């Protein structure tokens, strides 16, 4: 089963009366369990693609199917459920809630899903242990390093046990050693839980970790490498 099937995906943005062609007909499929990079220079359409796949935005034309269901045919409620249950998103800038502690940030998606407090806490502690942050659950984001904050963001994505995790330049704000540790962590989670990871990057070191690299440029797939 294809986790993602993107067919002829076009995304235009309107900007001050002009149109920006961010994606110009992208055809890409991803299988369950992949560990794949979307690589390309700044402005090539990486974030746009991940946002569309993550149902954070909608296509101008073309089609995206997730686990066989066409996104554009889903109701708002179905989309919200898909996003909450099946997709974890990791952002370059971590996007943690500053006033919440580490464990509150991680359990937040579970609260939205209506999981009871005790279960949410247990599952969040487990996710924090998986990313190597046991003992830090009461810290606020600003009391943690960039690498630790990105681990919290990974735990928050993991806690729902989604089939798919999308990570938009997850290491861009980290030094190369910490970036490497984050990639190693993602790779380990891909191996242990079989979670599909698709991440974007323009960093050759980060691409090294991927088993498949899709190069995009000017909103189009240029070529692919598989290892
Ligand atoms: N909300 C937006 N409004 C207008 N143009 C946008 C918007 N988001 C992205 N773009 C443009 O779309 C193109 C692709 O952007 P993006 O997907 O962010 O690329 P990348 O993540 O590879 O740097 C760029 O030209 C960018 O300026
Ligand atoms: Mg981007």
Give structural attributes.
binds adenosine-5'-diphosphate, binds magnesium ion, six-stranded mixed sheet, alpha/beta, 227 residues, 7 helices
Q: Name the structural class.
A: alpha/beta
DSSP strand (E) fraction? 25-35%
Name the strands of the widest sheet in spatial order.
6-7-8-3-9-10
- Rg: 17 Å
Number of helices: 7
Note the run of SSEs as H and E: EEEHEEHEHHHEHEHEE
Shape: globular
Number of strands: 10
Low-pLDDT stretches are none
Q: Could you describe the largest sheet, including whether it forms a barrel? A: 6 strands, mixed
Describe the overall structure:
By secondary structure, the chain is an alpha/beta fold. The longest helix has 18 residues. 35% of the residues lie in helices and 30% in strands. The chain has seven helices and ten strands. α3 packs parallel to α5 and α4 crosses α5. The structure holds adenosine-5'-diphosphate and magnesium ion (MG).
Could you provide a short overview of the structure?
The chain is of the alpha/beta class.
Question: How does the SSE layout of this entry go?
Answer:
Elements: E1 2-15, E2 18-31, E3 35-39, H1 46-53, E4 61-66, E5 69-70, H2 76-86, E6 87-90, H3 102-112, H4 117-130, H5 146-158, E7 164-168, H6 176-193, E8 196-201, H7 204-207, E9 212-217, E10 220-226
Parallel strand pairs: 3-8, 3-9, 6-7, 7-8
Antiparallel strand pairs: 1-2, 1-4, 4-5, 9-10
Bound molecules: adenosine-5'-diphosphate and magnesium ion.
